[in-house]
Inverse folding.
């Protein structure tokens, strides 16, 4: 027995040690022990019914079967702390001892064989579900080809620094986050964004190579773990290996199982109460002979059978297996769900609050109008705009800079200084010794203390009624120009909102810093329930508070930067286009790796399917236990069939949960 305990602990430690590195070896060890146990049990039966050997031979074979079948069981029991004393493994151990007391080693061998096999298949199913997530860790090599003055060098990823240049050969994984500085071609980003089609990547201008990573267009950025196409790319490293999008995804995946939902926590609490109750019931039936006319062994037999039938193995795996499978399926589609709690809340969401820019609209506004107000040349006005807005990371600022630089034919423009972003209002900064303000008219009025002339207000209103976003450029004395940009709604957004209504979303509101006229224009065109414009970040929170008071469970969808207060306040937060935003991945409960709104109906449907699977699994696990106990108490089944039913329900629950891996 001492040797068996030692082996069980060694195997248990071996399995844990290799669970993250060599899963096949762990599975092989576990399953082989189960198979050996099964072969010995079957051989014992054959020795009785086929070869009619002496009973001592079959008994020895059954006991050997029990020993091999109990390796996992003993390995989990003996390191056990007292706080975890009442668990499923203890019930199985006591039941196995009970079969020996009854003189039924064949039933004990069958119990431990099926329990160890069921455990192996259960672990295998969970590992299979987790593998869709864990495989992220193994998709890239540990080295990259760094371009240096000495030529190409093979360098470990952990040693690659920002501003290194990496050569990515055709049809290989991109090892770093960075920007393309030479070459162009398609890149398959499905591993991190779920996009089905490759995305074309182009090199930046050499003189722009020192700019911040966030300033580049997505057509210039590449990400670790994505697959290069058939062209070589030279990539300028912008993030160290520990800070890449892939590294952040892996970190989230590793934390997924720690973030348990309320359902799973309730099941775990129920299990802690349920196990001692089942033990007490089975113990009570062991002494039934004191009340009815039967032998102690008959009563003990029924008690052991109840102990087996009532063990909550299937219940213990019913929720975590479904949650892990669902999160794995979501990740494969470019949706990162941060644990069971987020998945559970998503199933209850019945109201959506959405940002406009980059969420409902393309997020790629075009500079459509430049109205000069003080006689300066358009070129002078554009240089001021580029000098200040180049240092802002807002999507509208980037669009204005891009179109203004194109108009200026990419002439060198001096960058501003002391540039400050006023969230939800505008930007201010010094350019060529003069302070300028660019933002909505209320912001400019507040900063300059100058009134907006009536004719200027009418021009702004005309532009906004066309669905355009207007900004005013001003110095300390007066407005200098009106800038108008237009951002169109994404293709298919109206259909997506209709699908969301069908999935149970009762209310959809748009919360934007743009003027109310623009909000109305966009909201009406896409079928939003209500559109609120001219909002600062804290004012968005006030609207969410009102929705909560009305009884809604709210999901906020935004970019994770300007919308951070609203994302934090909502019951659940979605971040759009998180593949390019560190803040979005860290802030949101659910991160959509690209900016495809269609993934929200998918995520909601997946959460509802997960809830159904959990309910089904709970019904199966508890229902089978109740049915088996009833059949045992009424003498309609035997201990052997109780074992088969108990372990069969555990495997059935695991397989039912795995269906979520193929949810569409």
């Amino acid at each position: 027995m001492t040797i068996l305990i030692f082996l069980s602990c060694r195997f248990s430690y071996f399995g844990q040690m290799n669970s993250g590195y060599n899963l096949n070896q762990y599975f092989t060890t576990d399953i082989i022990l189960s198979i050996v146990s099964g072969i010995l049990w079957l051989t014992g039966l054959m020795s009785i019914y086929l070869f009619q050997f002496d009973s001592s031979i079959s008994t020895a074979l059954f006991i050997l079967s029990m020993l091999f079948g109990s390796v996992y069981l003993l390995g989990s029991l003996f390191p056990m702390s007292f706080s975890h004393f009442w668990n499923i493994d203890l019930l199985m151990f006591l039941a196995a001892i009970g079969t020996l007391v009854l003189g039924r080693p064949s039933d004990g061998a069958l119990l431990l064989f099926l329990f160890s096999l069921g455990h192996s298949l259960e672990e295998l199913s969970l590992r299979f579900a987790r593998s869709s997530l864990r495989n992220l860790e193994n998709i890239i090599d540990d080295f990259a080809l760094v371009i240096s003055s000495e030529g190409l060098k093979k360098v470990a990823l952990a040693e690659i620094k920002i501003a290194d240049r990496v050569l990515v050969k055709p049809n290989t994984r991109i090892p770093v986050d960075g920007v393309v500085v030479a070459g162009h071609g398609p890149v398959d980003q499905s591993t991190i964004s779920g996009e089905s089609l490759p995305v074309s990547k182009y090199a930046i201008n050499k003189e722009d190579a020192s700019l911040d990573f966030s300033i580049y267009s997505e057509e210039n950025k590449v990400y670790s773990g994505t697959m290069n196409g058939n062209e070589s790319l030279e990539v300028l490293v912008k993030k160290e290996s520990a800070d890449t999008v892939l590294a952040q995804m892996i970190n989230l995946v590793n934390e997924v199982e720690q973030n348990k939902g309320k359902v799973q926590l309730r099941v775990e609490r129920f299990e802690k109460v349920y196990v001692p109750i089942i033990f007490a019931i089975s113990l009570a039936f062991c002494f039934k002979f004191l009340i009815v006319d039967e032998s102690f062994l008959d009563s003990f037999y029924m008690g052991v059978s109840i102990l087996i039938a009532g063990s909550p193995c299937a219940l213990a795996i019913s929720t975590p297996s479904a949650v892990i499978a669902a999160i794995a399926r979501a990740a494969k589609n470019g949706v990162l769900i941060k644990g069971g709690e987020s998945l559970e809340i998503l199933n209850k969401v019945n109201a959506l609050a959405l940002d406009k820019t980059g969420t409902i609209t393309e997020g790629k506004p075009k500079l459509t109008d430049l109205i000069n107000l003080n006689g300066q040349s358009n070129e002078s006005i554009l240089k001021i705009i580029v000098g200040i807005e180049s240092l802002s990371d807002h999507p509208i600022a980037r669009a204005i800079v891009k179109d203004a630089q194109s108009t200026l034919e990419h002439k060198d423009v001096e960058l501003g200084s002391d540039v400050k972003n006023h969230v939800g209002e505008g930007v201010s900064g010094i350019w060529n010794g003069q302070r300028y303000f660019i933002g909505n008219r209320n912001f400019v009025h507040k900063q300059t203390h100058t009134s907006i002339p009536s004719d200027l207000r009418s021009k702004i209103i005309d532009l906004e009624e066309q669905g355009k976003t207007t900004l005013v450029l001003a110095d300390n004395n007066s407005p200098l120009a009106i800038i108008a940009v237009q951002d169109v709604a994404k293709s298919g957004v109206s259909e997506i909102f209709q699908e969301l209504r069908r999935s149970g979303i009762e209310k959809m509101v748009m919360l934007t810093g743009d003027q109310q006229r623009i909000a109305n224009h966009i909201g009406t065109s896409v079928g939003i329930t209500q559109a609120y414009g001219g909002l600062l970040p804290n004012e968005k929170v006030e609207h969410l508070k009102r929705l909560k008071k009305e009884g809604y469970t709210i999901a906020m969808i935004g970019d994770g930067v300007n919308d951070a207060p609203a994302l934090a306040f909502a019951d659940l937060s979605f971040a759009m286009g998180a593949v390019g935003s560190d803040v979005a991945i860290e802030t949101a409960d659910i991160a959509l790796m690209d900016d495809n709104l269609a993934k929200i109906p998918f995520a909601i449907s997946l959460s509802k399917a997960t809830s159904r699977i959990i309910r089904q699994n709970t019904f199966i696990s508890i229902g089978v236990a109740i049915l088996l106990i009833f059949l045992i108490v009424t003498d309609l089944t035997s201990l052997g069939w109780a074992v088969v039913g108990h372990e069969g329900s555990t495997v059935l629950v695991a397989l039912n949960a795995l269906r979520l891996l193929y949810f569409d």
Observations:
- The chain is about 50% helix and 15% strand.
